[in-house]
Structures are given as structure tokens and as C-alpha cells.
Amino acid sequence: MEKLLDILRELHPETDFETETRLVDGGILASFDIVMLITRIEEEFDVVIPAKDIVPEHFNSVKALYALIEKISEQDD
Amino acid sequence: MKRACKTAIGILLACIVFFGALFALTRLAAPKYHDTLIDGHLTGEYYDEKTDHDVLFVGDCEVYENFSPVTLYNVYGITSYIRGGAQQLVWHSYYFLKDALRTETPKVVVFNVLSLKYGEPQSEAYNRLALDGMRWGAAKIGAIKASMTEGEDFMSYVFPLLRYHDRITALTAEDFEYWFKKGDPVSFKGYVMHTGVEPAAETPQEIYEPKLPEQSFAWLEKIAALCEENGIALALIKSPSIYPEWHPEWDAEIAAFAKAHGVRYDNMIAENDAIGIDMQTDTYDQGQHLNVYGAEKLSRWFGKVLQQEYGLKDHRGEAAYDADYAALTERYETEKQRQLSEENGT
Amino acid sequence: MLFPSWAFLLFLAVLVPVYFLVPKRIQWIVLLLFNAVFVCAAGVLGAVFMVVTIGTVYAASRAMDALFSRQRETLAAMKETHTKEERKQTRLRFEKRRRLVLIACLIVNFGILFVLKYGAMIGRFSAALFGTRAFGQDLALTMGISFYTFSTVGYLLDVYRETIPAEKNPMKLALFTSFFPLLVQGPITRFETVGRALLEPHTFDGQRFLSAGLRIAWGYWKKLIVADRLLVAVKALCARPNVYRGDFIFVEMLLYAACLYADFTGGVDITIGVGELLGIRIEENFLRPYFSKSISEYWRRWHITLGEWFKRYVYYPLSVSKPMRALSKGTRKLGAGVSRRVPVYLATLLVWALTGAWHGSRPTFLVWGLLNGAVILISEELKPLYARFHKRFPRLTASAFYRGFTVIRTVLLLSSLRILDCYGTVKEAFSSFFSMFTTWNWGAVFRGGIRSLGLSYTDYAIAGLGVIAMFALSMAQRKGAIRPRIQKRGTVFSVCVLLVLIGTILIFGRYGFGFDASQFIYNRF
Question: Which residues contact B193 (CB under 8 A, 6 or more apart)?
């Protein structure tokens, strides 16, 4: 979780990611950021997020995103 | 329940105000045809007639500027009316005749053949001049349907605001003056007077189709049939105007049609000497239309033809006609003097 | 049928009562029949293409569904008897077959779209090659094909991704594809939302009816009073690139911006309003786009559904695709910054090239798309610079003045890019654009220049008032939706607003004889 927050802060230092729940709907994370984020997640977590999971619900909060990462890494095993 | 009632009344009131305003705006935006484009006023003036007519002229400018019903009455006692208009096409004439038959049955219908050269609707503006003033009925609906050019739609004849709404930003004093007022007639039983003189000059040669369009003859057939049904004698004429040109091939076609249908056809261009028309003095626009002197001469000549050929009754001495035509003659003379003094003034 | 036509109004006047009078059970069937009438009225050829789309997408989605369930059964049966690796191979085999089905279906549908959009170009090409013309320009305008193809293919892709199950009844898919208000100029919709809403029963609701009426009237208002009026001047300006140069181009930019906004948002207002008449909610396509502070924000607020579609089905899949990831990894030695940027950059530029191609077949559209992508990428790179600027001048950058500046900057930038929309060739567009900086002729513009464009000063005044009204409404909208606020003041008040809208359209609208019932600009796509 902390690792994920670090990646996010790298992208947008000014945002309080721990509490924000409308990252995509609120326009904080643009499509550009999301792709950057996915690339970073692959680097750090060795998890590839498939296209069908790239939907606002999964990226609106750190919690949701972390849950997604965990789900995918479990499936891979 | 009470609230629903209040809402219903509120909506009803709003609608009444809305449609009232639209009605007023429609009247305001529609062209008045009174001081400008007076041709558009002619169609509606027919409905103000108080007496009936033995002779009904239908056709284009070659009737409404070339024949004078005042002269026909004062010289021969023939009652007549001209239902003509600018570039009035043959189906306009047909529907005007049909429209007139709702209220009267003339003894003779005189149709000027020049418009037969057009078999297709020509221009939206002329359609509007001819049709805007027409009273509603099967004839008007038929006339609109036959006349519409590409891009026109029927609805805009029913609700003229759809056509004229852009005039709202370009209104003139005329629009306000005749907003709800019809205004004085601009014609004398359909005749539009001009006192000016402009001698005929060399007319340009034009290229032309040697055959008149078939559609024109289809409509002419309909006119002939309508007359026959109602026991009306049809007379075809070609007014003595020398321009636009009237070609011998066309003339032969009309003559053949007349012969086949047993109706009279007069090409008056050939009769100009007999009528006494001098294109140096009797036209106001180089031979296209006659001025009042030419129209009076032509009416004297044609009145005799009508009287001899169709045995029309002399109505002079009948009180209703005398009163009507006396008032008309007075207005006619006044207008003639007004135009003459205007000419001399400038 | 175009929105501003008697035929369309008559169509609605028949549909609405019929829709609410028939039993709820068959409402959707009635709607489907009306859609069929609408589609056929636009041309039989168009109907044929639509049937092909519905048929192929239906077949493909059902085949995928079948493959999914067979895959599940097979894998379940293999669970005890086979190794993990063998099961993976089986899964991959099924995946491959699904992909084949998908690709075949996409080829057919995008093939139709391609031929229709680029038909004229192919025609010229084949004429040059074989001396005969294979396709004519007349094929090029099949109504709404760009919109419904995207919506329906979106549905197929959702089934492919197993996000939604395939619809079993082909008629229900047909209803979604052919929903008539969407065929004029979109928006692109999703089966899960609009497709489902179309199938639900709907009851008549007076207040909703009134609300829909207000929205439709406002759409016509924008379209007929502002857009169609300004279109005359815009067309005149674009038609003579040799004459109208210099400051005329600036005027053209502003007029076109207003015209396009009024036209496209007006049309979508009508579409969404018609949906609301029937009780069907259609996605919003605009969110006050001209209030955006950057181009990328603008594209999240203008033609939202198209952007979403490209993001969902092209941009994201492409940026996480295997080749992209391999490329990213391969460039790691050039530095983390470069390798992370590779997927984003490539995907952005490709999506923008496609967006450009979607808008039209001329090369100008491609250049327009790529320039949009380039501006977005550049502003992304400049972000750290902006951040420094904001830190340095916090008071200035927090002010309303600065916000206004960024909004105006965005509108001007966009309008500059749109110059490419107006001209036939890229060269003409660039030459016109740069003439703004080399020719100083405001004098000519105001010494009657703008009156030579087919509009009178009165026309400009009316359009200007219209623009002010649109702006005022957008400002008011920031504090919440407008129509509920109108309706809160009572039914009679709402009816009065509606009548005022209709009355002003009738008087000041540009319609009827002498004015072309010009098509919505976006109808071309």
C-alpha cells in the first residue's frame, strides 16, 4: 500500500491520496496519468493490469486500486 | 383538485397569449403588398366585389395591365373582372377560375395564352404574390401544391410566419400601417393603371423552344373542361403586347387547340392596326405592357368582339351595377389625374 | 430525417402517444418498429448496412458467449485430470478462438465504415487505376453510421472482455443499434446503460415530459438561432481562403467556435431530450467544454462519449498491450523517464490519429488529430514548469483572473486547431492561420468586411445575443442543473419558458425558404 502511495505522490505531489475517493471522476487522474501509473505498477509490483480492468471504479481510490492489484497477483499464482 | 385547476387555467392563458402574439406577429411580418409589390394585393381584392361579372379575365400581366373593365362597362355595359397577376402561371389561372366559381358563374372566361410557355413553377416570389391573398379552400390547396418550387413547403402557406419571420428585423412603415388594415384597392376590378409613355424599341431576339410544354396544355385542357362543365364560353387571346416575343409555332399550336375544342382564339398582335394601338404612344414600357390609353383602346375593340360573339347583356341602367361602376369610374379618373400630375411634376 | 424538419416533428408526435398507450410489455417492440421506419426513411442502403452490423455483432457475441461457457466446462472437467500447464494451454486456445471471432467481426464492421467514409477517396483512386469509379460520393453519407458502429462494437468488446453477457434476443440488440435519436449525431452509448433502459417499461410523466420539452426547445434554439446563422458567415469565410486572410481568420475562429458549439450541443440536447420524452436516459456528451483550463480537460468535457470510447477500447488496451510493454522494457536503458513515456506517447498519438480519421477522410483531419495529441503531450511535459510557476506566484495563479486567462487560452488554442476543419488542404489551413500574424487588416474587417459574408448587422446582433444567452446559462449551470430550478417555480412558469423559447425560435430562427435547412455539422461524421 505504502509503495503504491509513493508512486501516486510521484505523479501528483499535491494530492492527498489516502483520503481521496474520486481520483478519476474528480479529474485528478487523467488517462495520461493512468497509463503512467500502470507502467509504474508493473515495474514495482510485477503485476500487469489487463485492459478490461482499467475502469474508473478501480482507480478512484488507493484502496480500490490496491485491491485490484492484489486480486490480479492472486490470480496469477 | 383546486391546484390542478389553477395550473390548467394558467397554461390555457399562457397559450392564448402565445398564439395571440404569434397571430399578431404573423400579420406584422407578412408583406402588405400595398405600397410596394402591389401585384400581391390583386388576388385578395376580388373577394371585396359587390356585383357579379359576365366576363372573367384570367392570365398574367398581359391581362391585368391591358384591359380596362371600366371602359368595357361604360362603353358596352359589359360587367367584367380581371383575375390576373405578375407571371401568373396557367395552373394559377385554373385555380383562380375554380375559386371564382364558388361564388359566381361568368358567361365568358378570357384566358391570355402567354403564360403557356412555362410548364414548371418558376419562382417562389411570384407564387407568393399570386397565392398569399387567396381565400382558403380546395382551390387554394390545389394551387399551392401545383406551384411549389424546390425547397418550399406547404406548412409555410398555412402559417406564413414560417416564411416571413425574417422580415421581423426589416419592417417598414408600410408594415405597421397595414398591420390590421386592408387598405384601399390598388386595382380597378383587377386592372392596374399606368399613364406613362415609353415607346417600343428594337426587341432583342431570343432563343426559344418551338414547342410549348405539354404540361401547359394539360392545364389548359382542365380550364376548357371546367368552362364546359359550367356552361361558360372560353375565349383564348394573345394580348397585343409585342414583348416577350410570341412565336408563330406557338401561335399555330394554340390555334389548333382552339379549333379542336371549338373555342375562339384571337391573336391581337396581328390586329394592332384595327385596334388602333400605336406602340409609340400606347405602352409604358417599350411594348411589354399597354398604358391606360392602349388599354382603353383595346377594351373598346375587344368589348365589341365580346358583345357580337357572345351576345352579352348591356347592364347599364341596372341600379346596382350603375352605382358600383359610377364609384369605380370616379376613382379611376382621380387616379388617372393623380398619375398625370405626378408625371408632370417630375 | 433531420431534427429541424416537419417529418421529424410529425414522427415524434405519432411515436410518443403510441409508445405510452401500448401495453408496457410491447413498448420496446413498438420502439423498434419506429426505429425501423426512421432508418428506412433515411435510405434503404443505410438500413442494409445497419442490418449487417446487427447481424454480425449478434452472431459474434453469441459465439463468444458459447466459447466462454465451453471453456468453463472444459476447464472444470480437466481440473482433476490435467496439469496446470495443460489447463493454461486450453484456456489460451479458447482465448485465441474468441479473438478470431472478434477480429472477423471488427473487420466487417470497420470495413463498412471505412468504405463509406473513404469511399470517395477509394473511388478516385480506382478511377485513376482502372478508369472506372467503384464507389461514388453518394455512398459517403449513411446516416449516423460512425455513431452506431462505435456503440455496437463497444457492446461486442464488452462481451469479449466478459464485462457483460451477450444479449440472447437479436431484436434487443437491434433496438439498441437503431435507436433513432442517436442516429442523427450520436452520442455514442453503451449497451449496459442505454441498451438496458430501452428495454425497460416506461410510464408517462407530465413533469418529465415538460422537462424534456424544455431541453429539446433549447437545443433547437441554439441550432436555429445561433448555429445556422453563423454557419453562413463561416462557410463564406472558408470558401475563399485567398480573399479572407489576416484578421478575418481570427473572426472565423471565433465564429466557428460559437457555431460548432451551438450546433453540436444543440443537436445533442435534442437527442437527450427525445430520450427523456420516452423516459430513456442517454449519457451526457458535454460538460461546459469551453470552461476548460487545458486541452486535455476540454477533451474530457467535449464529445465525452467519443473520448471515453477511444480511451476504453483503444488507448488503455493499446498502452498495456504486450508489444507496448516490450517496447517500454526495451527502452529502459535510455532512462526510466523515457521508457515510461514510450507507451503513453505512442498510444496518445495513435488515438489522436484515429480520432482525426473518425472525423473525416481528408488529410486535414489527420493533422488536426495529431496536433491535438501533440499539444496534450507538450502540456503534460510542461507540467513541472507550471508547478514551479504556481509556487512562485500563488496569489496570481489562484485568482479568478488567471483562471479566466487559462480558459480563454484553451478556447483560442482549440479554435486555432479547428482552422484545419475549415479548409480542404493542410496547406490552405496553415497559410490562412499564419496570415493572422502577417496581415493586419482589422480595418477591412470592420469597414463592411463582415457584412460581405451573407449576414447583416442584425444577424450578428441576434447571434451575439444568442451566444450571451448560452454563456449565461452555462454560468448558471455551474450552480446546478437549470431545468429543475425552472420547474420548481411551477408548471405554469415552465410552460411560459417553453413558449418563449418556441416563439423566439419561430421568429429569430434561421429556417424556411431561402435558408437551407442545413444539416447539423456533426451529421457528416
Answer: B68, B292, B295, B332, B335, B336, B339
